[in-house]
Amino acid sequence: MATYEPTSSKAVNFVKRLRERAHYDHETVHKILDAGLLAHVGFKVPKKKNSVKSDTEDSEDEYPNVIPMIFCRIGQTIYLHGYISGRVVKALSGPVAGSTSEEQAPKATVTVSIMDGLIVALSSMHNSNNYRSVCCFGKARLVEDRDEKIKALTEIVDKQFLGGKKWDDSREINDIEYKTTRVIAIDIEAASAKKKFAGPKDDKEDIENPEVVKKIWTGVIPIKSVFGKPEDSDYNEAQVPEYVSNLENKSIYLYQ
């Protein structure tokens, strides 16, 4: 089985807490990536050499950057897209200025989290959640090959429709749109997933206390996010396509 198994406890993807919930196999990591519609991308803004910093640049250097973005996965690569002057796109277009070494390619962390339920316990300190999450680590690169760029853009768009072919059901993008949109590829070098699907777990003394058990409800409250009924735009004159109408009442999270 293909795996991102860490080689040591110092590896960036080694899960230190609740290790029994950790998964490093490609299948689990990829399923969670494919199920999520929104990723959080962590990156660092490169420092500018031989320049006087502004207050904005000082602030960017002081704090790590994390931005929510839509995305897609193709094989072992995560793709993002954004406007050519966007901060995350500029920061991850690499390599770092003044260096041609692959080691200096900008690094990124991509996380996806899905909340599947509230676990309600007798004690507030034992309340918890059912969830699926994944953390991926890799070096970023600007996608310059046209075929790879178009393929990534197509997958990013269609992923939002759970595979519905929205890219094909759109007018063709023009040169300005193509040139002002950058696509960033993050080749996954390390990753870890965590999952929890369980009921409440309370202290034995509380469970065996009739007064507490009869007074306080315990159990699991599933969390389900679904697509609603499509609403026409003010200028719409077309029929709702089948791939859109089929989304109504369907879970936004695949593999749930």
Automatic annotation (TrEMBL):
Pfam families: Pyridox_ox_2. SUPFAM superfamilies: FMN-binding split barrel. PANTHER family: 5-NITROIMIDAZOLE ANTIBIOTICS RESISTANCE PROTEIN, NIMA-FAMILY-RELATED PROTEIN-RELATED (PTHR34071), FLAVIN-NUCLEOTIDE-BINDING PROTEIN (PTHR34071:SF2). This is Flavin-nucleotide-binding protein. It comes from Smittium culicis. The lineage of its organism: Eukaryota, Fungi, Fungi incertae sedis, Zoopagomycota, Kickxellomycotina.
